[in-house]
Amino acid sequence: MKKFLFDLFPLILFFAAYKFADLYVATGVAMAASLAQVAWLRIRGKAIEATHWIGLAVIMVFGGATLWLHSDVFIKWKPTVLYWLFAVVLLGARLLMGRNLMRSLMGRQIDLPGAIWDKLNITWILFFLACGVLNLYVAFSGQFTEEQWVSFKAFGQTGLMIVFVIAQSIWLGRHIRPAEAAGDDKAKD
Questions:
Q1: DSSP secondary-structure letter at 37?
Q2: 188 by DSSP, 3-state: which?
Q3: Separation of alpha carbons 66 and 29, rounded Å
Q4: What pTM, to 2 d.p., does this model score?
Q5: Disulfide: which of 31, 32, 55, 106 matches 63 by Cβ 3.0-4.6 Å?
Q6: Distance CA 65, CA 141 (A)
Q7: Which regions form coiled coils (predicted)?
């Protein structure tokens, strides 16, 4: 739970800053919080995950463009770009390098048949693609206000992620293998 809240730190501060100021102040706060997050990990000697580096790069580029050009379009595109980037990395690793990154990330915690790892990878790719499309709809369809988009970004997409992870955990629970069956499939990979 502590790591989950730490990872949400920039988003929580973005939302709070928006409520007290505006989108541009909130963007600057999110940029500073993301930078502070990575710096904190570095100072503490902890591993900085690829997702932190990617998130920092994307917020700096899209947040910087938002502030420099004083246009909310860039910050509204940021979640979509981040989600689609994750989808491309998952897909690219599988197609170009033959690596299933979901297995690389979670393989030490659970043991699953190879086909299930592939399905898990695909579900995450589809989830990230759908989240990106949904963000664009809320941000640019004209059906929602800026304030509604900020709330959706902070709570809606976070809620969707939590529901997705819970549903995925239930599904994975049906496929986890006993320890003695694990060696058979690992020899194939």
A1: H
A2: coil
A3: 13
A4: 0.87
A5: 31
A6: 21
A7: none
